[in-house]
Design goal:
The chain is mainly alpha-helical. It has helices at residues 2-15, 29-61, 70-87, 89-113, 119-146, 152-165, 167-198, 205-255, 262-293, 307-318, 333-358; strands at residues 324-325, 329-330. A hairpin with a 3-residue loop joins strand 1 and strand 2 (329-330). Helix 2 (29-61) runs antiparallel to helix 3 (70-87), helix 2 (29-61) crosses helix 6 and helix 4 packs parallel to helix 7 (167-198). The longest helix is centred in the middle third of the chain and has 51 residues, at 205-255. The protein is elongated, with a radius of gyration of 23 Å. The chain starts with a helix and ends with a helix.
Length: 359
């Protein structure tokens, strides 16, 4: 099921031009040309659609004159982040080739040993799949919900714009899935070590070397992902903060209108909170990678440790992942909570400014 979800996502990412690799981690001249054409089309026409979105939002919400620049700020940030995401696409696509090697090695070892992934990783993946699916479907169909009574021409013009906005959501999913695979690999290594600790006989050298090779590939790939995706995740975090602060203010204004439809209010609120959960899962999976990788390996092995086993334990305990975005800040649940605290403060400031200027 999870493999099928990842394949479907890769097909969708290819359709919107987010990557030129298909679900089998293969790139052809056709996919390269298609992604390039879609990227040029998106970057050229998206400003027109976003300008119309700014005008529609200002008219629909009836923002005060002193706050009418907020939709412009929001959609400008959206375009800048989308432009950076598409322009740097080939740079980040290198991660997919590294991930293919790690995934094949990990799946081979898990099939050989009969090990299963932890239930925590399964639940996190299912939650991320739900938030991604809901947000992408919502972005695509939101013009049909809020634009009732508009002409079909207007809806068809709005649809490509909203489809392009899904890039903001799907770009972080590659990041999430990559680190999810890394976390699954570290979890497998931990399961193997726990089994080794319980054994009463000498661990085969071939099995230990295989585990050592997998752990080395996981650590090397995790560092590479963190390096290549650092600027992208910094841009995505900036976009998310802007989205949350401005939409919290606009949503508060819109929900105060008596003529606003209850279903529209509910739909907008769900999009707001589900995107919050979606971004939280990005930070959560990074914390899980660090947790699984740094789990205490000083286990009680029975009998005398072999020279190879002692060397491996020294190696593994010496490896530490520096999960910082562009070397600026660590990515984990605590940092997410700090970010949300800042967002709440800035949202309150916007509301106070609105109340002061409205008097």
């Amino acid at each position: 099921t999870m493999k099928r979800v990842i394949r479907i996502f890769h097909k969708f990412a290819l359709i919107i031009g987010l990557t030129s690799y298909n679900e089998h981690f293969r790139q052809t001249r056709i996919t390269q040309a298609y992604a390039l054409i879609i990227n040029i089309f998106t970057l050229s026409l998206l400003p027109i659609g976003l300008r119309e979105a700014v005008e529609y939002t200002t008219m629909k919400i009836m923002l005060p004159k002193f706050m009418q620049m907020l939709p412009c700020v929001l959609f400008t940030v959206n375009y800048i982040v989308i432009a950076y995401t598409l322009i740097s696409r080939s740079y980040r696509d290198r991660v997919l080739m590294d991930m293919e090697i790690v995934i094949l090695q990990l799946n081979r070892e898990m099939r050989r040993t009969g090990k299963q992934m932890s239930s925590n990783l399964r639940r996190v993946f299912l939650a991320k799949t739900f938030t991604l699916t809901y947000l992408c479907v919502s972005y695509i169909f939101v013009p049909f919900l809020y634009d009732r009574g508009q002409s079909w021409i207007f809806l068809l013009e709005a649809l490509p714009t909203n489809l392009a906005l899904t890039i903001l959501i799907t770009s972080t999913f590659i990041y999430f899935v990559s680190f999810w695979q890394i976390a699954k690999g570290y979890d497998f290594v931990n399961q193997q070590l726990e089994e080794f600790a319980a054994r009463q006989f000498v661990i085969p050298s071939e099995e230990l070397r295989s585990l050592w090779s997998l752990h080395a590939n996981l650590s090397r790939t995790a560092k590479r992902i963190n390096k290549l995706y650092g600027p992208q995740m910094l841009a995505s975090r900036f976009d998310y903060c802007t989205f949350t602060i401005i939409n919290a203010y606009i949503g508060s204004i819109y929900t105060s209108f008596d003529q606003a439809n209850f279903f529209e209010k509910l739909f907008g609120s769900l999009m707001f909170w589900i995107r919050t959960v979606d971004f939280f899962l990005n930070d959560c999976i990074c914390g899980m990678v660090t947790q699984y990788q740094s789990r205490q390996k000083a286990m009680n092995f029975h009998g005398t440790l072999t020279k190879e086993m002692s060397s491996y334990l020294i190696y593994e305990n010496s490896i530490r992942l520096n999960m910082k975005v562009c070397g600026l800040y660590p990515v984990n649940k605590n940092k997410w909570l700090q970010m949300m605290g800042s967002i709440v403060v800035h949202s309150v400031v916007l509301m106070q400014f609105h109340m002061a200027m409205s008097q």
